[in-house]
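Can you make up a protein sequence with its backbone structure tokens?

===
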Amino acid sequence: MIDSAFRWLMLLCALSIFAIVGLIFWELTARSQLTIHKFGIKFFFGSAWDPVNGNFGALPFVYGTLASSLIALVIAVPLAVGVAIFITEMCPRILRGPLSFLTELLAAIPSVVYGLWAVFILVPLLREHVNPILMKVFGWTGLFTEPNFGIGMFAAGVILSIMILPVISSLTREVMSAVPNMQREAALALGATRWEMIRMAVLRNARIGIVGSIILGLGRALGETMAVTMVIGNRPEIVKNLLAPAYSMASVIANEFSEASDDMYLSALIEIGLALFLVTIVVNMLARLLVWAVTRGAPARVA
């Protein structure tokens, strides 16, 4: 009797996850019916955002979200994997504990604290020292050109990279630690250098878990609100220049939800939340394709 009750209770807990996701989707869809009926799928491809005249398009926010998240991944993934490799394979035992603790501590810092630090430290640093170098070296690409305000997609991507670095690094470290030591010993016994041992015996076996950690970091980057809102510039435009101000999907909801003066405006903001939900689904689908591309359907090798 007790075992049966326990089994049904656990089943109910598992089914509650489906219920929560379904209720979120239902509520977002129901509350955004006005813009869905008026604009349809064009809402996601329109670039106009004019609440006064009731003309709404979410494309600038989708673009700002994806661009800043991509910048964050480009910066954070090499650093996070490098930190994980050092702590797991090269770090002296006496430093391993403090470094691991400090890395995980970064994940516990509130988003608004990151935002304040970015406003007073990161933005001036980028504007006065980093951006001029990028403009000089990569200005010909059109990705780093005037105006140089300090705030913009690049600043948002940098602060996001700092925020997702501990997530990716911690999970990567756990995955690498799970690789059997005999894999390392076998590679070294065959004459491999330390780098070759790490590349062939550790990273190759841990590749699926590393991809998973990157996807989890991307998930946080896509939904981040406060820190991004404080440095991205909050301008609904689609521009090639990464130094220009932009807007993210989470930021426009946080900034304008309390100012929504009519039902259509409110519906547009809620549909942006729906779009963010859909983008998350697309990212997870792409993650599965990425895992297949890396592994070609083969499982990670174990001892």
